Amino acid sequence: MAKEMKNILVTGSVGQIGSELAMELRRRYGAENVVATGRKTEPSEELRSSGPFYFIDVTNIDTIEEVVKKHNIDTIYHMAAVLSATGEKNPQLCWNVNMNGTINVLELGLKYEMARVIIPSSIAVWGPGVPLENTPQETVLKPASMYGVTKVCGELLCDYYVLKFGLDIRGLRYPGIISHETLPGGGTTDYAVEIYYEAVDKGRYTCFLKEDTKLPMMYMPDCIEGTIQLAEADFSKLKHHSDFNHAATSFTPAEVAVEIKKHIPEFEISYEIDERQKIADSWPNSIDDSAAREEWGWKPKWDLASMTEDMLKHLRARKEAGALYK
Ligand code: AKB
After folding, report:
1. Whole-number pLDDT of residue 2
2. Is the pTM above the cut of 0.90?
3. How far is Cα 323 from Cα 326, in angstroms, rounded to an integer?
4. Whose CA is closest to atom 1 on ligand 1?
5. Each residue of 179-217: pLDDT tens digit?
6. 17, 103, 278, 283: which sits with the fewest CB atoms below 10 Å from its CB?
7. Which ligand 1 atom lies nearest to the CA of residue 83?
8. CB of 176 shorter than 6 A to ligand 1
9. Measured from the CB, is residue 213 less than 6 Å from ligand 1?
């Protein structure tokens, strides 16, 4: 029987996904029971005032343990990570944060006999030579980026802790995540967020990936729903643990531009390709998430058209309020 999740810690909660995840967990589990943490960046007023918040450094286990003890933590959502583009600029930092952060969280999971540890992975686990369309759950993992290397090692490490110590760990391979609350930073899929902000702000966007670069993508509400759904799934039904392919939709920059033009006809896109193209070229176009669908009932709700409408609605309202870039 899986243990109950009562006191939750979220690392990386000032980041793009962590900030929305922490707020949703507070809504579902009670604000006082969800401890948000970040490293340096100030949290939003909403995150800071709605429940406990601490600054920690995931590479320093003592700083995490202090919060774990103080709040009797039994569940960790480990969202803190250095993403692909930053990882290529600073591979040692990427290894240090992603690998030491992960093992520190796993060790605390063991030491405090936690109910659950949730550690996301990414489409970055794949590299050149992988089947590009509908990439299967089980296929060769030979990433070409340091971020991808840490994600493959992280998945293996998590599965080892499940098998060796019986720790209840769950993880999914996130595609690019699109959202309007907190801007992403240091990723290759970041263009798919920036394009909406710039469309609303200036009516044009210069994209750093080629127009026909197709990547797996997902709208934030699906990402949050899927992550919590996996955390709450019946452990006995899970054949996989730390590496579920997690898909919603796939598109190219040119396809997003066409969709945006339906709402902002004067929108213009141009292209200035940079080093992130190489990373994107090593990732799949689309992925097969049938294991997630079968083992824990995953089903996305949003596609490119509905996401675009919703993104633009939110960002336009923010622009009118004078707070597009909060
Ligand atoms: C990145 O682009 O690095 C991330 C990811 C796909 O994991 N968004």
Report:
1. 79
2. yes
3. 5
4. 187
5. 999 999 999 999 999 999 999 999 999 999 999 999 999
6. 278
7. 3
8. yes
9. no
